[in-house]
Design brief:
single chain, 156 residues, alpha+beta, 3 helices, 34% strand
Length: 156
């Protein structure tokens, strides 16, 4: 359940971007729950194909979800899909990912300069309010990468 006010234009852009332009996120089942006011919330369902030997999602999937949610929070703060790149991402694990559980990430962009954005957030097991991990990071703004095309081509 999202605790953020919905901002339809940003959420719709993010869903189009992640749904039609990123086969990886599509394959992982990543979904945008909310995007508003420099905050983002995304979820990833459990997938047996991505599970570790204990039946839980591999920790790498959690890092991928957190990194992606950090980027989305930055896009919300900047109010544009300018190219960004991860400079530093720190994930502190507080407990193990439960077997068979999906994931939820909630991240806020806590500040930015002309060239760097800073984020902080948490990851949770689906349906649980006890954090699995915390994340902090810094991201370069206006990197040399391409600008993001938000055109939804799935209906074409």
């Amino acid at each position: 359940m999202s605790h953020m006010k919905p901002q339809l234009d940003q959420a719709a852009m993010a869903k189009a971007f992640f749904g039609s332009q990123h086969p990886l996120f599509n394959a992982l089942g990543v979904d945008v729950v909310a995007v508003a006011d420099a905050k983002a919330e995304m979820v990833m369902p459990f997938s047996e194909a991505l599970a570790d030997g204990l039946g839980a999602l591999h920790r790498g999937t959690l890092v991928t979800l957190l990194d992606t949610t950090c980027g989305l929070a930055i896009f919300s703060a900047l109010r544009s899909l300018r190219p960004i790149a991860t400079i530093d991402l720190r994930v502190d694990y507080l407990r193990a990912i439960p077997a068979g559980s999906g994931l939820r990430a909630v991240v806020e962009c806590i500040g930015w300069t002309d060239s760097v954005a800073f984020v902080s957030g948490r990851a949770y097991a689906a349906g649980d309010e006890m954090p699995l991990a915390t994340v902090t990071g810094s991201f370069a703004i206006d990197t040399l990468g391409p600008a993001f095309d938000t055109t939804d081509r799935s209906a074409a």
